[in-house]
């Protein structure tokens, strides 16, 4: 942890260590569980450029999170982050901040053949690529834009060639792509990339989530175990979201992000910054704290840090745990495309 930073704990004694920055609310795909095309159509009111935080504003805020609060990891998200112009420039600015150990990006991979090498040279360490099926027709239906699997696989290969670390995220939905669990596991085991299975979550208000559509971690492990036995392995660090499982033959690992069946709220140390500068303390939040107005009204770094610290100290979010205990009241939630996954 940065020695100059303050140990700020929320109401449940959770520190702030991980910052997710959404750089745009736009995306070149329309995945059904995130930005369904019937909602996010041609007339959808995406944020105009002037409402987005500038790279200089993002750099300033990132420095505060790192130097004042001990954030060590930054992940760039969207929307699709590579839809934002000049992303290697932003990565370079963030990579120059003393105290950051890791800068990663979550992307659909389509634009990686263009940007992977530039991102690596600018200081990006890793990419997590979203891919929900190796079946072309099924994937085209899921992504809502008819984009082929080969486009994403080309992006994964470009990231690997550039020297970036690569992980794959697969959102599994019952009746949609659960038959792709084994083919995906086999393929990325062979390729040497870590595949992480994500339980279908009730993020936002437009994806028509219901519990019956969830394929749980236990279900997925059972399917994989019948073909390629796995066992639990220790987390890489405290607060790691994905539960790790290693193949018994020693040929790699898979992960599970299981917020529905195995909530990890008790160790969540993430803050999320939306594209227009709102600070969110939970993926399932209804509203965020407006930092953009503070920045643009001439607040000092000390004043900004005080505001951020107050938000985090007052944080008591545990939505996934409350949902599991049937205590989560219905609420309107921010869309995933607005604050990233």
Attribute tags:
twelve-stranded mixed β-sheet, 17% strand, 31% helix, 341 residues, single chain, TIM Barrel, alpha/beta, globular, 11 helices
Provide a compact summary of the structure:
With 341 residues, this protein is of the alpha/beta class. It has helices spanning 55-69, 87-95, 112-122, 136-143, 149-162, 181-191, 217-225, 291-296, 301-313, 319-324, 336-339; strands spanning 18-22, 73-77, 102-107, 126-130, 165-172, 194-199, 230-232, 243-247, 253-257, 270-273, 278-280, 289-290. Helix content is 31%, strand content 17%.
Report the structural category: alpha/beta
Strand content: 15-25%
The largest β sheet comes out as: 12 strands, mixed
Succession of helices and strands: EHEHEHEHHEHEHEEEEEEHHHH
Helix content: 25-40%
CATH topology assignment: TIM Barrel
Radius of gyration from CA coordinates: 19 Å
Oligomer: single chain
Unreliable runs: none
CATH architecture identity: Alpha-Beta Barrel
What CATH first level would be assigned? Alpha Beta
Number of alpha- plus pi-helical segments: 11
Helix/strand layout:
Elements: E1 18-22, H1 55-69, E2 73-77, H2 87-95, E3 102-107, H3 112-122, E4 126-130, H4 136-143, H5 149-162, E5 165-172, H6 181-191, E6 194-199, H7 217-225, E7 230-232, E8 243-247, E9 253-257, E10 270-273, E11 278-280, E12 289-290, H8 291-296, H9 301-313, H10 319-324, H11 336-339
């Amino acid at each position: 942890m940065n020695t100059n930073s303050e140990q700020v704990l929320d109401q449940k004694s959770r520190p702030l260590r991980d910052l997710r920055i959404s750089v745009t609310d736009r995306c070149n795909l329309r995945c059904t569980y995130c930005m369904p095309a019937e909602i996010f159509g041609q007339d959808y009111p995406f944020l105009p450029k002037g409402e987005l935080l500038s790279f200089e504003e993002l750099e300033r805020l990132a420095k505060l999170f790192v130097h004042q609060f001990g954030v060590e990891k930054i992940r760039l998200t969207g929307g699709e982050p590579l839809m934002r112009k000049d992303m290697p420039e932003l990565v370079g600015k963030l990579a120059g901040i003393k105290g950051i150990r890791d800068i990663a990006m979550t992307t659909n991979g389509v634009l990686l053949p263009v940007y992977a090498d530039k991102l690596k040279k600018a200081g990006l360490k890793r990419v997590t690529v979203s891919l929900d099926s190796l079946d072309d027709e099924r994937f085209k239906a899921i992504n809502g834009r008819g984009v082929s699997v080969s486009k994403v696989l080309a992006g994964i290969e470009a990231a690997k060639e550039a020297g970036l670390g690569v992980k794959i995220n697969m959102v599994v939905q019952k009746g949609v792509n659960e038959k792709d669990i084994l083919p995906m596991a086999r393929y990325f085991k062979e390729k040497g990339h870590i595949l992480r299975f994500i339980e279908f979550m009730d993020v936002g208000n437009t994806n028509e989530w219901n519990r019956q559509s969830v394929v749980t971690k236990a279900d997925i492990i059972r399917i994989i175990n019948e073909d390629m036995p796995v066992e639990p392995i220790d987390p890489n660090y405290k607060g790691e979201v994905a539960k790790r499982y290693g193949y018994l033959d020693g040929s790699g690992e898979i992960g599970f992000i299981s917020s529905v069946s195995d909530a990890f709220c008790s160790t969540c140390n993430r803050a999320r910054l939306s594209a227009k500068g709102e600070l969110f303390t939970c993926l399932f939040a209804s509203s965020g704290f407006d930092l953009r107005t503070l920045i643009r009204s001439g607040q000092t770094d000390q004043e900004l840090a005080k505001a951020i610290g107050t938000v985090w100290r007052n944080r008591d979010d545990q939505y996934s745990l409350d949902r599991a205990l049937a205590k989560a009241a219905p609420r309107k939630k921010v869309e995933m495309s607005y604050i990233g996954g």
